[in-house]
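task queued by scheduler; priority normal; single chain, no ligands, no partner chains; default sampling; output format set to structure tokens
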Amino acid sequence: MPTGEVLSQSEIDALLSALSAGEVSAEEIKKEEEEKKVKIYDFKRALRFSKEQIRSLSRIHENFARLLTTYFSGKLRIYVQINVASVDQIPYEEFVRSIPNMTFLYLYEIPPLSGNILIEVNPNVAYAMLDRVLGGLGKSENKIEHLTDIEQKIMTKLFTGAFDQMRESWGSIAEIEPQMKGFEVNPQFLQMVSPNETVVVISLTVTIGETSGMINICIPHLTLEPVIPRLSMHFWMQTEKKNKNPENVSALSNRVKNAPVLCTVELGNSTITVEELMGLDTGDCIILNKKIDEPVVVKIGGVPKYLAQPGKLKNKMAVQILEEIKEEKNEHE
């Protein structure tokens, strides 16, 4: 019986009854508990990613699934829903055995990371997409053995655009540039890594109208190895702390201080009729509502900020700031 498991009253009564009748002995129960302390480890299924790293990969691909949902919904013009079903680490050989013998396999490079990743699209999903692109209702018809060159070209173009979305979702761990390298229908002809190499398999559930299926993303450990440290919570915390660094705040402040703003000086204003406006000619004068000894208004970005005195500086028109317009400042805050 697992340690820490809570028994119901009926289970406790049944256990006491079995002990009293001699059907079960306390020594046997103790022996079973000791045996369960031994954990079997399969060296062919070496766990090379921690639970924390798997969770980070899951979060990244949940964002990727949302981007794919938007992309395919727009391209196919039909209801599409994509979600992360599971994220597992298994040997590559086990992944190959788990997918159909005839399926859609796309091999991608993701420079600057070395190695490749494999995208497996279930035929149900692929043919529903193909039917929709060709003007159908989005029904699936599995005839992958007779895939024509035109159908292959359409599907390749569709998924080339789809997995460009990976660039955005992976931005937090690496600036990648996904590039399709090849297409295959039989997984036995696509030996990406050695059979015992550990790979992460992200399984996405896809619903297109009334058709559903899976898309599997297979990423070898060797490909992710350079960015594995960035999959930890410690990295995320460091990144957040770095973004709040006083040096960054100071640099941002300096940029704001040096940003250009429009400064205008209002010498005064006046009110005239439309008839007077239409009759204006060169040399005419308009009387302003300001006296010559009254301060003028200086506007920054169209907002009155200062009172100033007009004059000249080195034979150029200038104004001398007299005071700040505090009332106007408070009014615009």
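post-processing summary
- The chain has three domains: 9-39, 45-233, 258-332.
- The beta strands are 80-91, 104-109, 116-121, 179-184, 198-208, 211-220, 263-266, 296-300, 303-313, 316-324.
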